[in-house]
Amino acid sequence: MIDSRQKYREYIRQDQLALGRKQDACPRLFGDEIWKFEILLRKVEYDLNCRRGVMGKLIGKWHKMRFHRLSVRLGFTIPPNVFGPGLSIPHYGTIVVHGNVRAGKNCRLQEGVTIGATNGSHEAAVIGDNCYFGSGAKVIGAVRIADDVAVGANAVVTKDITESGVTWAGAPAGKISDRDSRSNLCSALFAQDGDEREPV
Fold first, then answer.
1. Taking residues 125-140, what's their average pLDDT?
2. What percent of the chain shows pLDDT beyond 70?
3. What pLDDT does residue 29 have?
4. 191 φ, ψ to 5°?
5. Which burial class, exposed, middle or buried, applies to 42 when counting CB atoms under 10 A from its CB (0-12, 13-18, 19+)?
6. pTM
7. Containing H/E element for 57?
8. Quick one: average pLDDT of 21-33?
């Protein structure tokens, strides 16, 4: 969670890496909407968690309004304070995430992903680090997903994935291989951590 200016900068840097952007680059005036969306997401998180006073609230409302407008334009329903640093969204297209989801660092969401609650419950998924969700993947209910898990395209996950470094697919989803998620994530994320492990 972003709880300081330093954490805000760290999240922005990690998101840039996850999106494959150079650290000294800025979003282009025309284009780079997803990058702009992620920056606004982090600004809204910083505003909610850190800003105080009248001026802080005004700035927060301005960021929130711009964030909402861009969310609608891109088809994203992603609430603040859900994803850790290193969020990667490669394409436009509907993505719906429940506000009570908690996801670790370096999560990648393809288009059509839904991570939600079920049957009127407010409990939602807890997702580990370095997880990948393929196009159209669905995660329903208060499931737990371990680190380094890849969820295949159109998979429907309704039970816990407790084993790290595996791929699940199908409807209902089940384990299909021992291949982890890292080949689907930006390799720069692991080089900066000093993790030289090759993707499986």
1. 98
2. 96
3. 83
4. -65, -40
5. buried
6. 0.91
7. helix 53-74
8. 83
d(CA 196, CA 189): 10
The predicted pLDDT at position 199 comes to: 39
- E strand map for 84-192: 95-97, 102-103, 108-109, 114-116, 126-127, 132-133, 138-140, 144-145, 150-151, 156-157, 167-169, 174-177
Residue 157 tokens read as 């996950």
Flag whether pLDDT at 195 surpasses 90.
no
Please state which of the ranges 16-20, 77-81, 187-191 shows the lowest mean pLDDT: 187-191
Q: What element of type H or E holds 113?
A: none
Phi, psi of 11 (to 5 degrees): -65, -45
Interatomic CA distance for residues 127 and 103, integer angstroms: 4
Name the pairing type of β-strands 174-177 and 167-169. Answer: antiparallel
Dihedral pair phi/psi, residue 62, rounded to 5° = -60, -50
Angle at 46 between CA 81 and CA 5, to 5 degrees: 125
Burial of 154 (0-12, 13-18, 19+ CB in 10 A): middle
